[in-house]
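Quick one, tokens below:
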């Protein structure tokens, strides 16, 4: 047991000015040289590790929850689409990226002596955690950029070829530059980790964060502008229903705006001093928000008709019941319904003279009764099926 020197042998201290929480520390390097540090450095390291650990733990839970929701709310026929595969892979790999990073924070690299002295003695397991987390970070970034490019391509499918190729060329080039610089930063970081050298923050790492922020903000501007322009055009055509396009726009604003704001705030020093883990939230926010727009659009697209009014749920129930009753009609009628385009095409069935015709229950989605010779066009371009007596033909 170490003996404590008597108080008289210690240097005199002024109790009025002495703060025991701010003391200088003296440690020895492996070669016997003296290294000076202080308790403030230990406290900042403690806060850094705790805050990043909480952040990555929350990211693991959020990514796992959304991955489960994505699988539950996506139909089987859509699980083979490229956008679903990319979003699912982003969430899956991001979970493991956060797990390995959390293991790194609790490993030997974060030992107080190693941090104060700069001499690292981490084990092979700690090195593997660091290298794996860096590699997964590049893979997740690549998948996120691919998902963003695919969604921008879909959003710009109605534009001219020249505009589409210009937009895709600029955004893709920015994404490739960001991925390339991040890959170079990963290589340098892994080399320093294997050699147990403190690399610090160099220009390559700074350029990696800057190009990533530029790419995210650029995709945000293009994606939000294109969807907003499409909604304006629909309003000019008197298409005022609240449907998948509006939901994709709302979720797209959230999807792209939040990561863009986080990407910009990580370079603002006052915010970075208060929230040092804000930069680690950019990729995870993209992985989480990207599938949300697809999920909401898919749920909205399941309904045959989209309404803006306060009783939209009543119209939805009536539309569903109307679809069921039309299928139980006369056997001589043939109805084809293309749900992907929200368009219904129907043929007329003829009844014998004297048969009772009750058209009151055959209105589509609870609409008012139309004339025998009318074509009822609903808000989603649906044509109502009607029966015409032989005496009118």
């Amino acid at each position: 047991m170490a003996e404590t020197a008597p108080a008289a042998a210690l240097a005199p201290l002024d109790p009025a000015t002495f703060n025991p929480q701010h003391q200088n520390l003296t440690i020895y390097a492996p070669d016997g040289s003296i290294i000076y540090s202080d308790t403030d450095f230990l406290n900042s390291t403690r806060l850094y590790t705790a805050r990043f650990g909480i952040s990555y733990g929350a990211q693991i839970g959020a990514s796992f929850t959304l991955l489960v929701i994505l699988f539950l709310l996506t139909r089987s026929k859509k699980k083979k689409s490229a956008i679903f595969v990319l979003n699912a892979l982003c969430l899956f790999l991001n979970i493991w990226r956060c797990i390995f990073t959390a293991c790194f924070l609790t490993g030997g690299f974060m030992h107080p002596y190693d941090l104060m002295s700069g001499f690292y003695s981490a084990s092979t397991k700690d090195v593997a955690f660091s290298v794996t987390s860096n590699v997964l970070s590049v893979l997740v970034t690549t998948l996120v950029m691919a998902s963003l490019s695919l969604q921008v391509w879909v959003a710009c499918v109605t534009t001219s070829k020249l505009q589409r190729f210009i937009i895709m060329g600029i955004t893709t080039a920015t994404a490739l530059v960001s991925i390339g610089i991040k890959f170079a930063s990963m290589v340098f970081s892994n080399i320093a980790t294997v050699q147990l050298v403190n690399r610090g923050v160099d220009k390559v790492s700074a350029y990696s964060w800057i190009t990533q922020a530029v790419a995210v903000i650029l995709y945000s501007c293009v994606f939000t502008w294109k969807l907003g322009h499409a909604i304006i055009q629909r309003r000019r055509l008197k298409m005022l229903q609240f449907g998948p396009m509006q939901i994709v726009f709302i979720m797209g604003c959230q999807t792209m705006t939040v990561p863009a704001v986080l990407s910009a705030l990580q370079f603002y020093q006052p915010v970075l001093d208060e929230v040092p883990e804000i930069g680690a939230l950019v990729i995870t926010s993209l992985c989480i928000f990207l599938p949300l727009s697809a999920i909401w659009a898919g749920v909205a697209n399941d309904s045959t008709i989209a309404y803006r009014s306060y009783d939209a749920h009543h119209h939805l129930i009536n539309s569903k019941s109307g679809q069921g009753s039309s299928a139980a009609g006369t056997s001589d009628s043939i109805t084809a319904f293309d749900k992907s385009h929200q368009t219904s095409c129907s043929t007329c069935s003829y009844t014998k003279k004297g048969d009772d015709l009750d058209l009151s229950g055959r209105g589509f989605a609870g609409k008012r009764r139309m004339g025998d010779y009318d074509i009822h066009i609903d808000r989603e371009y649906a044509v109502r099926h009607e029966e015409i007596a032989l005496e009118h033909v």
